[in-house]
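Practice problem: Chlororespiratory reduction 4
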Amino acid sequence: MCSLLLRAHGLCMPSTFYFSRLVDRSLLSKSPTLAKIVHAQLFKAGLLPNTFWGNRCLQLYFKSGAVVDAFQSFDDISDKSIMSWNICLKGLLRNGYLNHALDLFDEMPQRDVVTWNTVISGFASCGFSEIAIRVFLDMVIRPTEFTFSILASLVTCVRHGEQIHGNVICSGVSLSSLVVWNSLMDMYRRLGVFDYALSVFLAMEDRDVISWNSLILCCSDSGYKEAALDWFRLMRELGNRPDEYILSTVLSICSGLRDLCKGKQAIALCVKMGFLSNTVVSGAAIDMFSKCNRLEDSVKLFRHSEKWDSVLCNTMVASYSWHGLGEDALRLFILAVRQSVKPDKFALSSVLSSMNAAMLDHGAQLHSLAIKLGFDRDTVVATAVMEMYFKTGVVDSAMRVFATTVDKDLFFWNTVIMGLARNSREAESLAVFRRLLMHRGLKPDRVSFMGSLLACCYANFVNEGIKIFSSMQNSHGVDPENEHYACIVELLCRAGMISEARDIAERIPFEPSSHIWEPILCASLDLENMSLAETVAERMLGCEPKSAFPYLVLIKLYEMTLRWEKSVRIRYAMDKQKLKCAQGWSKIGLKSSVYSFEADQLQIHGGHDTCAALELLSWDSDDQKIHWSEEHFY
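Answer key — structure tokens:
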């Protein structure tokens, strides 16, 4: 660069070759000062009257962001070519001067296809898709393949997509033009119209790996995951070589199907083709093993990775969280941060979602980290933060997040409704639910109604609960499912309306689950209604034969009514079927560790020292020592 400037300053005779190299290097620097120096040297050498060098100066100024100097340079060009106008138009659009670009577009003495494509792509890249489509409709010359590929990326409804598709056919675009037809396939994939995407694929004369990728991804997005794997199999049979992107898509499909066998085959193909070193592919493989309940294989694959990056670490953190291993997820997250792996919002939300009540301090620190990284305004992260606070019982902190979050999606609202209901803030939960009903852009779904019904159930708001349950299908078009029926039945049973609850359970239009009959069975226990209890228990066992709950209720009822023989028979039936009661467990956080305690299995950290201390401190009323042993604790 220095030698070029010395030559330009007249220390040796400059030539157009040197000025060309000087401009090329100046374009890379994007410096307004350097652009002015080069402009001055071109003027001194007498090259500026030339249109070519005037255009080069325009490129320099627009590249460096000096729009005012670029305008002055544009006015200095005496003989402006169509390229001069196009360069100025493109520079204005790239620098955000949209109104000036439209004025310049109207002043142009002539326009070629580059002009129209520049305006269309410029407004599209700035987010003004409607203006870009309007410019296309005003286009008076024949569009090119680049024009159609831009328009295909802008379409947001099927009707406009069909119009673009029709224009492509009427313009006589060759069926071997991969750019246009691949763009149309991707357009229909985004619009969720699989049939149209398939018709475009079948009509194409030539297909590349992008064509196959679009078809397979479109099948997967449309819910035809098995068909997507069939198309992948056909792609390989026809001799097409897959790339890393399509193999990661196939692994994601196997993950969604929970198909471990096909997932292993895809991983074997990745190993054979040398793609497993790609972090996107290995991340998809880790996720596949995790979703197929093979977390140990996910851990092995992660540990054998050559290097850690954000993709691998975030996927592994999400896998731990998905399996409910919050401590492992947090431990890996901290280790990744210490090794300078930048966390993204998805990893942060995964760790926050896996927090339990014993990890409140860690959750608050992660919330602070989210604020520091600027993720706290993201809806996904804010939802995870609220969920963490609701789990740990810090409702006020969760509600502060609710109040400060601007973009609230339906999942965000549902988290608040459900969290308030589960933390004994039923009235507030119903108030938030009513605010959701008045929201113009969102409609409540089954989770929203489940949260409101749960609030009514916990607060014994019978009339309100019946009203909400009746409005689900009548006013909002949401069909009640098992959990909704179970909630309204429990609400009625708590209010002593056993016959009404039983009528609802018997009129369910589908086979009810055993959870719907549980509150009726418990209510019959309180009433000591033997015949009703036996009938309901029989219905529950028909739904779920391996459930121990109806047996336990009947045992208690028989013992309350002194029917010992029947109680013994029920216990014998439980032992014969090897049914066990679900054991409860709890967790406690001590410093940096979290300890789990199961029922009938007390475990104490440092058990030997604890037993020794109890030996010294324990005695009975007769001053006789009680001999403690570790058997009391293990």
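Discussion: The two ends are 78 Å apart (CA to CA). Students who identified this feature from the tokens alone can consider the problem solved.
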